Structures are given as structure tokens and as C-alpha cells.
Amino acid sequence: MRRGQRIRVAKVGTNALRPLLILVITSLSCSPVLSEPAQWKMPTNRIYTNSVGMRLVHIGPGTFEMGFGDEPLPQELITRKSHFSYGDFDEHPTHQVEITEPFWMGTYEVTNAQYEQFDPNHRKWRGRNGYSIADDEAVVYISWHDAVRFCQWLSKKEQLPYRLPTEAEWEYACRAATATPFHTGDTHPVTSSQNSQAPLTIGQIPPNPWGLYDMHGHVEQWCHDWYGPYEPHPQVDPVGREDGLFKVSRGGSHSTEPYYLRSSNRSGSVPDDRQWLIGFRVVLGEMPQTSGLPAVTKSHERYVRQNVPHDIEKGPDPQRPYFKGPRPFVKIPKDAKGPLFGRHNHFPAIVECPNGDLLAAWFTCIEERGRELGIAASRLRYGHEQWEPASPFWDAPDRNDHTTAFFNDGKGTIYHFNGLGVSNRGLAIILRKSKDNGVTWSDPRLIFPDRDARRNVVESVFRTASGHILLPGDGRGGTILALSSDEGRTWTDPGGSIRGIHAGVAQLRDGSLMAFGRRHPIDGKMPMSLSKDMGKTWEYSPSQFQPLNLGQRVALTRLKQGPLFFASFCKMMMITDASGKQRPVSGLFAALSTDEGKTWPYKRLISDDGPGRDIETMDGHPVTMDRHRSEFVGYLTVCQSPDNIIHLLSSRNHYAFNLKWLTTRPPVASAPAPPAARQLPGKHTLSNIYRPKGLPTQDSWEWQFAGSGSEKDTINLVSEGSLKIRTGEKQQLWLRSEKKDVFGSVDQKKGFTAQIRTHILKTSPRRRGVDFELYDGAGSRYAITITDTGVYWYEGLVLGSVFLDFEEFTPVAEGLDNTDAMHTYRLAVRKDRVVQIYRDEKLIGLKRYEYRTPRDPYIQFGAGHGVEALLDYVAYDLNGAYRP
Question: Above 60 in pLDDT, residue 723?
């Protein structure tokens, strides 16, 4: 029998003799397992109370439209989900479903007291993380298998066919002949248990028209079905897919926004998952006789060759430098809204398959904390030049699937590790394996089911010299390790913590572990962590590399030829070119060490060293690649194929090169020409003006205030149209507007203009003054700070906040007197992403854009420490770049 199947006893005769019995193999359900065949003595009343105190209500046959429907959701349901006005992708297509047989459904979810009659040991789960303490609260921390066993126990106890509802039966009963988002209409039924830590007492709000309580937002409820996409044609008594990865749960839960509590919304998880969101209710009635729909295959699983090519180890001439790239591996339409998303694709993993293919996987979503986040995959088939279009790889419905890691064990097996959570924090970790080059996978197994300690797995998995599989992951404020000595069956945590998250880890020849992480720099450098006891303890020291920031992750591995390979990001790092001279480079680079990480004598920018051209980085943002610059952002992952080619992925692109390219000095390059001024059309008054009439957060532009202290502490309305900003020696602030009808509709391809009119009263030496920053939503940032004597341009790290050191600003113009009166400072941003900076009507400087991590467009102003200034207005025009 296949996974998830059972033997069902079915009646095929009704004569006076004992009915003829046959064995039918069907998908595992919650149908009863009885010691001998039985004639069911089904209830005859509409309301039935069984021997354990459960009340069940009769649900008659009928037909309904299953899925989202036609009308967009009301605005109050999508305040944080504006991209999903027509629900989630898996709620479509809407299709007609007929339920042909009556059933009884529990009027409430199963409670602690009821469940513990079956399993008294469950009491140890009561109150975990503050949820479900009392007898009459809905039971949680119940796996799908637990729910099945309870139904089987109850069936045997009562000689009645208890089971879980099919997904169709659940939605049919939840809707109770309604077609709106909730059985109450467009507004969800209010219940305190939608709040975190609230009691899960059953039946505290009115039932739906069919007498069922808590169908919206109490606890999610397991259903019978394997999860899969809907089919468009009408169905009769559907039972879901015949196989799958996830079992469906319905209804949404406490601690969840109303969007996910709708009648049509679908959730689910692996059948072994136990968590605080999921419980169940039972159905009384025979399982429908319908067959499940076929399981769905993805494009990266189709037509995959299983033989190993005879020339798999033959690659480019190792004595000649070889470089290819960038080749995009993220191929998703920009307007895609599920199961693949065009908006944000990040956090890749790569593995070389035994057949020579490369398999890449990464998360795809609208926002990283969103429940829509799933894992996409693409395959680069052996001998092919381009990656295939992406397809879904792992996507637990309404679960945040941060993040993915691969491991090739060198014996024909690929390991896939993945997070499973509600948000991007507090993840369970699953493991599955493939022995056929990623076509099929073993059942997902929870190797770290406890969500309290871990967050993210990190793509730096390898086998140690002692034979352990080493799996890094974020936790305890840095990166922690898990070790397995039995091919992934059991895991131990050595107990120490690497300095910095998302760390790349490698083993040195002496058995020590070396790691480089993000955050927590030492002496202004990326931290290096060393462990001589396999991760029990670590020593920290500054490396020679610049620290990482948001949107960046290192790659670290040992090459087959012996050296250590390292890739990261830099800002104005010096490299040695073919002439023996040094020159600065910025962006993605690689380094090589031949002395176990003591020195890194070989460093190269990851670039084709050609003439300047725009390429796309994370989420399609344009960046310039030439001999001085490359990608500024991305999570890196690396593998080496049998032909010794190194394959490095950023969050969007694939670069392939050999060891000879890494050890060859890059060609000589002349300094990049500074941007030249252009004669722009003039426009004295910009079309959109913010002239304050009160505190900024109370204004129609709806500024977002952030900083130490409060808005009222630092901002005063002096008179109509004039604000005074005052920060203390330990205070700073900024105010940002991201509204679509303010600056949020900016289009870099058209160019744009913005200006601020301010009077500097006081600034502190070598500190920022009044800040003015623009971000176009496509990777380009333009930011200045105005002090009492100068204007300075920010060219520092890729972070998005202006809470940064003054040392990361360079002069645009100095020797000014900005304290004598109001002055106007204009940023005219050209289509080529060069900004012309004006003070009053005089051009004082030109600067190219600076890259920052992706987010929505914004316009903001603020102030550093110890600033006093008056603000007259902020203005912008999105129709082009204009001189005053």
C-alpha cells in the first residue's frame, strides 16, 4: 500500500444473508476501524449528543459554489492584503459542488476534556505558550494523525462512523447557504479569541444558521483532504487529492487577521504538525465513495534524466579562465500573485544533482512575513544554457515557509531542509530526501518540531570529517548548528552560537569550524567565529571583510581543489588588477584562501569586466555592472559541479566560473567618469507640496514618525506652514510617507524631482543635520543631510534608514552658511538615475544613485542628533527631472 492509504470495509450486498464484503484501498481517512462489520444505527434527531458529551447537528445534502466567488473583498478585510482583493490563488477557480449524503457535524470543536478521554497524556500540552488551559477550551497541539486516531477510538467506542470532514463538507457547513466572506456577511463575527493568548473557550459567540459554533477564527480545524489545487468542473462529494504533502485545515484561528478567517480560505500543514493554532471537529457519517484527484506534478519534476552523463566531469579547460553570467534563475512574471509571486524572490539554495542538473529553490512572496510565502524551484538541465521557468516546490497553505537548504550526500541522495511556520519567526524544520534527482521526495519529517528556538535554515550544509551532517540555522541571537551522525534521522545541538545570523560555515583541515555571519561587527569588520569543539563553544574576532547588512548573506565552502571559497559584498574595497596596482570595487565579490582562512590573497569582483550595463538584481531592480561595480544585494549560495565549475547564486542571478578565473588578476580599468550635468527643463513650483498645518502624523500626507522620544517632544508648529524640529544630543527622528497618492506612485523611468525648504538653526560638528531622502521602490536611493555649513550625500550601506553614521556621507558642497535664512534644496533625479543637487537656484553637485534593500517607495525627512531647524515645506513632482 502507498503512503496515506488504508483498507476500508464496504458493503456491496443487502440480502438476508450476511452482506458480502470486499476490501477497497482508499486514501487514509478518519473512517472507523471496527473489530467486525456493523450496521450503523445512525441518529434520527437533528441534534445528537454522544457518550462523551459531544453535540452534533444534522447537515442535509445540497449544492453550493465552493471557492472565492466573483465579488472583490471589502476594503476593511484587505487593509494589509491589498494584493489579494480576490482572495488567495488557491481559492480559485470557484466550482459547483454537490454533497449527496447527509452527515452530522460537531457543533463545537473537540475540547481538552473530550480529547483526553482518549489520550490522557495530552494534559502535558495544556497551557503551552499560554494556549488552551481549561477543560472546555478547544484542544490544540493536535496532529492530523492524532485527530484521525481520536475518530477511530470514538467510532469503536460508539459503533458509529466518526471521521474528519472533507474540505468540501467543511466549507458547505461553514457557509450554511451563504455566499459572503463570512456566514455573517462581509464582517467577521467578533470574538476575543482572535487575540493572542485569549481563552479558547468554545461557543462564546452566536452559531451560524445551521447551528455550528466557532467556524471563523477560533482554532483551525483539520480536514480529511490532501491539499491541492481546485479543478474548474463541477464535482460530487469531492475528497481532495489522492496524495500530497499537506493536509487541509480550515476556519482560521486566534491570533490571525480576519482575511484568513473567511469561509473560502484554505490552510494546512504536514500531517505530523502539532501547534497552537490547529484543533479539529468531528463528523458522523460514512466517508464518500469518491476517488481522490490525481496528485500534481511540477515542471522541474518532469522528464528528468536519471542516467549520469559520461562526460559529467569534463568541463572548460582548467588552465584558462572561465566565467559565465549573470544568468537569471528567477523566472516569474512580474504580475504573478500565487502560487509564484513576481514581487519578492529571495533566500536561494542550490544543489548539484547526481545527473549533472542544477536545482535551485528560493522563497517567493509579497512580503517576507506573509503567510503567502512559499518555495519556488527551477532546474538548469545538464548541457542547457538557461534555467527553466520557476514552478512551486514546497508551499504549505497559509504557512510561512522560511527557508530552504539543500545537501548532496555524494551517494546519490539530495536532502531538502525547510522551515514551516506561521510567520518568518518560530519555525519548525522539516527534512525530506530524493534519490532520483529531485523528481520524487520522501515524506516530509519534522526534525525540529518545536517552534520556540529556531528561525531559518541556512544554505551551508556539509558533511564533516567525522561523518556528521552539519546544518546551520538562526537561533539564540546568532547562528546555531545541528549535527546528525545517522544520515538525518536524529539531530543534536552542540550548544554554542556563531556571532551573526545567516552564517556561512566550513571545516578547517585541523577539524575546527570557521564561520562568517551577518550583524554584530567587531572593530567595524565582519565577525569571524572559530570553534575547536564542533560548535559547543566559539571564539570571535574581526575578519578582514566589511560587515553585511540587510539583504546580504555570505557564501562559504571548500572547493574540491582544496582552497576555501568565500563570497560577500563590499563598498569601495581595494583589489589588485593585472598591472599590479590597486583599485576600488563595490558590490558582489569572491575571495580565495589557500592557508585555511588566515589570508585571502585572491579577490575578484563578480563581473564579466565588460563595459557598463544595467542588469537586474533582487526583485528585478536595476544595477550597473562594470569593472568597478556589481550586484549590491542578495543572499548567496554556492555549489561546485563534478567538472569543478563553481556555481554562485545571488537572489536573482547565476554566475559560473572556474578556479583559474578566481586566481587571475582582473583587467586594468580606468576610473569611472563622473556624471555630467545636463540642461534640464525648468520648473519653479513643483506640483505636490506639503506645507504643515499641524504635526506631520496628523496631516493629510500621513507621515510615519520614528525616533527616540515622541513626535510632540521634537516637532512644534511655530505658525501656519512652519515646523520647528529640535533633537537632543541623544535624539534623532525621521518622518516618512509611503502613501500611494503621495510619493508612492513614483516611476524611476520618467525621472522625478523633490525639494525641501529649511532654515538650519543649529547642528553639531561631524553629525548629521536635516535629512532628506527619496527611494523609488526599484533599488535607487537619493539622500542628503544639510548641516549648518554644508550639504552631504549618503553613499553608505544598503540599509534603508537614515539612522546612520555621518562618516557614511560625502561632501556635495561645504563652506556654506545655511543658518542665515530659509534655503531650498532640490534633488532632480534623471532617468539615468543621476541626481542633480541644487541649493536655491545653483547646481552644487551631481551624484549617481545609491542602492538600498527593496521596499515600497517613500519620501522622508528627519534630523540627526542635536539639531534645531525650521521647515517651511516639502514638495515633489513625479513628471520628470526639473531644475529650479
Answer: yes
